[in-house]
Design a protein that fits this description.
Blueprint: H1 3-17, H2 22-35, H3 41-53, H4 58-101, H5 105-134, H6 143-162, H7 166-185
Helix pairs in contact: 1-2, 1-4, 2-4, 2-5, 3-4, 6-7
Length: 190
């Protein structure tokens, strides 16, 4: 099977069976990408960071990056089409019927049941990515993991307490990451 068809089908399936947006897709994307050996877990984590930091919907960004990494520009196009097409088709169908069935108890029940599933998928993504970021080499306490955990907890606390802008958090995180690379690994900042 062609890599392009495989990428399209993979992202079409993910887009079709994921509710709750791009972040809810993350566990499925990670599983499929790793299962197919398209990239390493470190690459997935890096692509998540880049996808969160660039403008546009997360699902589109991550699909585009995975496609580009796996099969060049054509791969990015088919991956992006694959992840967007199911939502587009479902919205067209649902929009026509939703007003008519919105008060139906089965529709209300389905919508109520989907909320905890989305929260569970998001929690899974946070735990998986967090494990990779904070405990890359296993459960090891060293200067790098302890400082990263303390900084993460501090930034999380301050962002919840002070309502810091997400844009400022992204810029602050990038600066802290560069400073951490420089301090812990002796890399020169250009």
């Amino acid at each position: 099977m062609s890599i392009y068809f495989d990428l399209f089908l993979m992202f079409f399936k993910i887009g079709l069976f994921t509710f709750g947006g791009g972040y809810a897709m993350l566990p499925l994307i990670q599983e499929e990408v790793l299962k197919r050996n398209l990239m390493s877990l470190d690459d997935v984590v890096s692509f998540v960071a880049v996808s969160e930091s660039t403008p546009g919907p997360f699902a589109v960004n991550i699909a585009t990056y995975v496609g580009l990494h796996s099969a060049g520009i054509a791969g990015s196009v088919v991956s992006t089409l694959g992840v967007v097409l199911p939502s587009f088709l479902v919205i067209l169908l649902v929009a026509r019927a939703y007003e008519k069935f919105r008060k139906n108890r089965f529709v209300e029940g389905a919508m109520t049941g989907l909320r905890p599933a989305v929260v569970g998928l998001l929690a899974c993504a946070v735990l998986t990515i967090g494990k990779s970021v904070f405990f890359h080499d296993g459960f090891v306490f060293n200067a790098k993991t302890v400082s990263a955990t303390v900084i993460f907890a501090l930034v999380l606390f301050l962002s919840l307490k002070k309502k810091i802008s997400p844009i400022l958090l992204i810029l602050l995180s990038a600066a802290l990451g560069l400073m951490g690379l420089y301090a812990l690994e002796g890399l020169k900042v250009i």
